[in-house]
Amino acid sequence: MGEDPHVTGELPRGRRWSARTTWASRLNVPLRAFLHTETGSARVLLAAAVAALAWANLDESSYESLWGTTLSVQLGGWQLSHDLRYWVNSGLMTFFFLVIGLEVRRDFDLGELRERRRLTLPLLAGIGGILAPIAIYLAFNAGQPTAVGWGVVMATDTALALGMLAVLGPRFSDRLRNFLLTVAVVDDLIVIAVLAIAYPEHPSPTALFVAAGIFALVLLIRAAGWRWGPGYLLLGVAAWLAVSESGVDPVVVGLVMGLLTYAYAPARTELQRAADRFRLFREQPSPQLARSVRAGLAAALSPNDRLQHIYHPWASYLIVPLFALANVGVVVDGELLARAATSPVTLGVLFAYVVGKPAGIVIASMLVARLSHNRFRAPVGWAAIIGVGTVSGIGFTIALLIATHALHGPALDEAKVGILVATVGASVTTWLVFRLAARLPPARRARALLGASEGIIDLMVPVDPDRDHVRGPREAPVTVVEYGDFECPYCGQAEPAVRELLSDFTNIRYVWRHLPLTDVHPYAQVAAEAAEAAGEQGAFWEMHDLLLAHQGELRPADLLRYAERLDLDLDRFREHLADRRGAVRIAEDVDGADLSSVSGTPTFFVNGRRHHGTYNIEALSAAVTSAFAGTRLRPGDDREPDRRRKVGSEQPDEEPGT
């Protein structure tokens, strides 16, 4: 086996700036990782859509021949037979909706929606963003057979909308992305319900009753603590078959299974137990201990995290693009364009998405805030609400899915043209909104994009300048807290970034809190106590710097040598260590870490919000700059980030919303 990075201090290749000890680098799937996958897959989705259009227009017969090919599954006398397009639309897309359900459940358990009152405005905004487009579509199609296609204009393509927002919107606004994700998820939930109720084919109450029984069984075994993944997979397949036979689109099964899957942060006790099992395996490698290690690692992760890790990339990079390839193909000729220019279906879809979506979301948000006297208000500003409304006009994937159920023949082709044009129109409108917002003065721009509401605070124990170890001004508007371990190689890797951050920004304060991971770092506790002993003599930060600079030399003799180098009173230093006077202070930090669900080091908080992702200077500077934008929203506080320009380097341009 290779060297343990916790022992050598070396970082594994390719994991610099993103790892954490212990076993925690991927244990908490953050929104940022979700967004990264969605924005990357948006390019693949657009490429698949272009390929489908090109294919259909170059050789329509081969396009329709392939997707119309029948694929059958037969077991004895039982047979399930559908064309390839059905297997993609109602089979593979089930996994896409599983991912949506998982993300919704995660947001309820760990994200912004864990405070239930925060659901009120996005819920009503999402409903407004559904009712207004439906009203516009019906205004164009009232009294015509195509009025049945009203469900086409309800949905937002979450993946593509997030991808477009990443390209067109402000770079450093997680609030904005959270708000869009919540509104889009509301749309998706309602759309699935509409798909099941309004567009069934040959409904079978018996099959629906069987499906309901399977879901009840899932709830029972989950309550009993059953964790065997293949068993849930088999029950999911059985539910899919039952719903498929019922006439309801079986993609609903994926959403329901995702919503039933718990998300929780890993407990340090579980991580410690997994580390203990790994050490046993290292001492005595055997198949039995290998299975024990795998079981321990799996137990530390929530089922939600594990399933997202498995299915999210497949759904984003393969299933959704394949869906676009199977459904976007339409022959675009002069006849279709002439028909679409006056078609109530095309015009209804276009205006519903480009005008109705933003109007519904903005008006609903304003009404909720005003009628509740700002008790329920958006976590973002007015410009961001408009931007979320315009980018929500990208219905693409789910709009196409509904269209294939609601419309047929020429009307379906006209709806596809409307969906494609609306996607372009919504993207251009979103670009204009954020370009105009970028021209506002900094303070007004911050308020317009970030609003005035307070975000959720993840740091459960507030910073106390009289107790905490603080670098920088005591009353600085932005505070960076790090939970660290002096023997953790990743904390040592982050230290230069922290120093550069403090050099670049003069009006932030940096706080170090102890989290010695004694199960993997045998000298972390005594090193932390040595730092406290030095702090008693006014030299905490000097000792802090020495310990991180010499992470492989933290034995008691080394600590005494550092104390001597700092010209400390050695007798007092020894007495402090011998009496373990710093242990209580360190234990308090560890308790605070537990309350804040910190399971690995280093973990950073910026103004009370957990910093997700990497901890290089670019990522930390972005988080700090965004925090400064938030501080400018406080009454009477219009301080700008005091960032020093380095000699020989260019100051990066400030992005809209930063």
TrEMBL record:
Q: Where is the signal peptide?
A: none
Region labeled Disordered — which residues?
A: 630-658
For membrane topology, the record states: Multi-pass membrane protein
Bias (Basic and acidic residues) occurs at 634-643
Per UniProt, subcellular location reads as: Cell inner membrane; Cell membrane
Gene3D superfamilies in the record: Glutaredoxin (3.40.30.10), Na+/H+ antiporter like domain (1.20.1530.10)
Q: Does the keyword Ion transport apply?
A: yes
Matching InterPro entries: Na/H_antiporter_dom_sf, NhaA, Thioredoxin-like_fold, Thioredoxin-like_sf, Thioredoxin_domain
Give one Pfam family, short name only.
Na_H_antiport_1
User: What keywords are annotated for this sequence in UniProt?
Assistant: Antiport, Cell membrane, Ion transport, Membrane, Sodium, Sodium transport, Transmembrane, Transmembrane helix, Transport
Q: Which reaction does it catalyse?
A: Na(+)(in) + 2 H(+)(out) = Na(+)(out) + 2 H(+)(in)
First-listed, main subcellular location of the protein, grouped into a coarse class: membrane
Ranges of residues in domain Thioredoxin: 434-629
Q: Does the keyword Cell membrane apply?
A: yes
Role noted for this protein: Na(+)/H(+) antiporter that extrudes sodium in exchange for external protons.
Under HAMAP family, the record lists: NhaA
Q: Which PANTHER family does the entry link to?
A: NA(+)_H(+) ANTIPORTER NHAA, SODIUM ION/PROTON ANTIPORTER NHAA-RELATED
Q: What is this protein called?
A: Na(+)/H(+) antiporter NhaA
What is the organism of origin for this protein? Salinispora arenicola
Q: Which gene encodes it?
A: nhaA2
